[in-house]
Write a structure and sequence with these properties.
The chain has 469 residues and is α+β, with helices and mostly antiparallel strands. It contains 10 helices and 4 strands, in the order H-H-H-E-E-H-H-H-H-E-E-H-H-H. It has a 4-stranded antiparallel sheet, with no helix packed on it. Strand 1 and strand 2 form a beta hairpin. The chain is elongated. The mean pLDDT is 82.
């Protein structure tokens, strides 16, 4: 009776111990952040869950982002790492189960530790099973850690996606700004060429002093120098944009002008606590905490004994011809292996795991803090740049008008050429600054979308979210 019950008790004990998991279970950090953003105008959360770049109504920008999501090399690298991490979950999980192998061999000779009187032959073939019972949950904790690593790489890939989209949009707007500034520089150069021709003629007739001629030449040279500067900036920005698209550097056709792009409406930013579930870098940092937390359990389990089972069932013979007709052979064994004294190595492994988990937690909290800062910075940037753009627009209109009036006054002999030069300088600077500020405001909206965690990347993602998958 005891012989029958003992195997059942042993099996029940193995199952029970296999269900144990040492180490702490993961607990999500408690939210301790602010209840609202300081510069937020709205608290609802709707616009952020869009493919926000489509709000600019620019087909060129839409096509550039689509190309980048398909061909960008950094994104392809991230996607490959996600697949490697996904496969690693199954690779690690396989250690929980028995491993099956086979062994087929033959040996012949007259030596077996000592010389034999005659030759001995040996032939064998058998399958074998080895299984380390997952006491204390070591392998399940390792699988848990691998699964969290997989999530981290997936969130990392999404971070790369959002960064790519924002970089493409920002670089595109920067390209439009440089093209606008190049156009302003060329128009200014053409105007100053005409003005210099008039001054040269008036100088030839002794109407103006040589100083006026020199000052006109200086202003013409300033605008002439600006043209190659912006030509260079356009070419280099085109190359940067092409690289983001996974393409070789080259020309980039743009059909929209910087001043033809409308600004998005006010962006509902939601609550700060929502960032924890929306920002991929925060989710990636949290997955790293989960991974390190699970590894604590694996390290603790390595301090405890493990049960190894080995079994084989096969054939053996001293004649190859009688291998399949001989008696079957089998073997079963079990061993309990555990550490006794390793100078604190196993204890220190567990301590290292706990400190690594603490470091991951601190990194997570820092990522959350930086996320709050990103949103606040983007919000104040939009607010102040709107006011700055309005002022730059007024300055631009006034400076252009002042330049026209100064030219008329000078031709009528009502003012000195010094006033004309100052008006030209003010007008040129005002136009360039107005273009630059408009680009910065467009980019600040991009920064806010990115700081909030972006929107859906593809229509498939949006559909999956709507279906609750």
């Amino acid at each position: 009776m005891i012989k029958k019950i003992f195997p059942l008790l042993l099996f029940a004990l193995i199952v029970y111990l296999s269900g144990c998991k040492v180490g702490p279970d993961y607990q999500r950090p408690e939210y301790t952040g602010p209840d609202s953003f300081r510069y937020a105008q709205a608290s609802t959360d709707t616009v952020v869950n869009l493919r926000w770049w489509e709000l600019y109504n620019d087909p060129t920008l839409d096509s550039l982002i689509d190309l980048a999501l398909q061909n960008n090399k950094d994104l392809l690298v991230a996607a490959a790492r996600v697949e490697a991490a996904r496969i690693n979950v199954g690779y690690t999980s396989a250690d929980q189960w028995p491993s099956f192998s086979f062994d087929i061999g033959a040996a012949s000779g007259n030596f077996n530790g000592a010389k034999l009187s005659s030759r001995a032959d040996n032939f064998f073939a058998y399958p074998q099973v080895n299984w380390e019972i997952g006491f204390w949950g070591k392998y399940r904790r390792l699988t848990e850690s691998a699964r969290a690593d997989y999530l981290a790489t997936e969130y990392g890939r999404r971070s790369v996606q959002l960064s790519l989209i924002t970089n493409v949009a920002a670089t595109y707007f920067q390209l439009l700004s440089y093209k606008s500034q190049l156009e302003i520089s060329r128009a200014t150069l053409a105007s100053r060429d005409s003005g210099l021709t008039i001054i040269e003629e008036r100088y030839e007739y002794g109407v103006v002093a040589e100083l006026d001629l020199n000052q006109a030449q200086v202003q013409r040279a300033i605008s002439a120098a600006a043209v190659p500067q912006y030509e260079r900036a356009v070419a280099q920005t085109e190359s940067s944009l092409k690289i983001l698209l996974g393409d070789n550097p080259g020309n980039m056709a743009t059909h929209e002008r910087l001043f033809g792009i409308e600004f998005p409406s006010e962006i509902p930013v939601g609550l700060p606590s929502q960032l924890l579930d929306r920002r991929p870098d925060i989710l990636e940092a949290e997955a790293n905490v989960m991974s390190q937390n699970a590894y604590i359990g694996a390290a603790e389990a390595m301090r405890l004994p493990s049960l190894n089972l080995t079994g084989l069932f096969g054939l053996g013979s001293d004649e190859l011809s009688s291998l399949t007709t001989g008696q079957m052979a089998w073997s079963a064994s079990g061993s309990l292996l555990g550490p006794i004294f390793e100078f604190g190595k196993n204890k220190k492994r567990a301590e290292i795991a706990r400190y690594e988990a603490e470091a991951a937690l601190q990194q997570y909290e820092n990522t959350v803090l930086m996320a709050f800062k990103d949103v606040e910075d983007a919000l104040i940037a939009i607010s102040t740049l709107k006011a700055e753009l309005a002022a730059q627009r007024e300055r631009n209109i006034a400076a252009i008008n002042a330049e026209k009036l100064s030219d008329k006054r000078y031709l009528l002999g009502e003012t000195s050429y010094l006033e004309v030069l100052e008006s030209q300088r003010q007008s040129f600077d005002a136009q360039l600054n107005y273009s630059q500020t408009r680009m910065e405001l467009l980019s600040s909206f991009i920064g806010l979308y990115n700081a909030l965690g972006g929107g859906w990347i593809t229509p498939e993602e949006e559909q999956a979210a709507e279906n609750g998958n």
